[in-house]
Specification:
Largest sheet: none
Distance between the termini: 56 Å
Radius of gyration: 19 Å
Number of helices: 7
Strand content: under 5%
Shape: elongated
Number of domains: 1
Mean pLDDT: 93
Low-confidence stretches: none
Number of strands: 0
C-alpha cells in the first residue's frame, strides 16, 4: 500500500510539471510606467529594479527554480498579488490620489521594512536594502508625492 501511495505522489509531481502559469514578461514599451511622467534618478531605478520590479511590474526576472512545480504557481501568485497592489508599469493609469497613496505605501514599506518580503530577500540577497537605499526610495517618493499633490487636478481626482 505504501508503494502505491509513493508512486501516486511521484506520478502527480511529474504530471504537474507540465501545468505552467503564464510568465509575467512583456517586451513592449511600458507607456504607463511611472518614469514616463515622473523623474526617477538612476540610483532609485536601480534599487527598484533589483528589489521591487519582479513582483511590481509587467516584467519579472525568473530564477531557475521557476521551472519546478508547484514553485512556479507560488511565484505566480506572489507576482499577481504584487501587481494588484502596486504596478510601476501601470502607475500613470492610476488616479492622482491613488498614485499619491501608492507612494505613501512605498514610504511606509521602507520605514517599517516590510518590503521586499522576507521570502524574496532570502533568495535574492541583493534585494536586502540598506538604510541608505531605503532613505533614497523614501526621499524620491516624498518628492514625487509633492509633484502629484501640486497638480491642480489632485484635489478633484477620484480615489480609484
Amino acid at each position: 500500500m505504501a508503494k502505491k501511495i509513493i508512486f501516486a505522489i511521484i506520478g502527480i509531481l511529474i504530471v504537474i510539471q507540465f501545468i505552467r502559469p503564464d510568465k509575467n514578461i512583456n517586451a513592449s514599451e511600458q507607456v504607463n510606467n511611472i518614469k514616463t511622467k515622473y523623474q526617477m534618478p538612476d540610483t532609485v531605478n536601480k534599487i527598484l529594479s533589483i528589489a521591487c520590479y519582479d513582483c511590481h511590474s509587467n516584467n519579472t526576472r525568473y530564477p531557475w527554480y521557476n521551472n519546478i512545480q508547484p514553485v512556479a504557481w507560488w511565484l505566480d501568485s506572489h507576482i499577481k498579488d504584487g501587481k494588484k497592489h502596486f504596478n510601476f508599469d501601470e502607475f500613470t493609469t492610476y488616479s492622482l490620489k491613488r498614485q499619491d497613496h501608492k507612494l505613501e505605501e512605498l514610504i511606509e514599506s521602507q520605514k517599517d521594512h516590510w518590503m521586499p518580503l522576507e521570502s524574496f530577500k532570502a533568495i535574492h540577497q541583493d534585494a536586502r536594502l540598506s538604510n541608505a537605499q531605503s532613505k533614497l526610495l523614501i526621499d524620491w517618493a516624498n518628492e514625487t508625492r509633492k509633484v502629484i499633490q501640486a497638480n491642480p487636478e489632485f484635489a478633484v481626482s477620484p480615489t480609484k
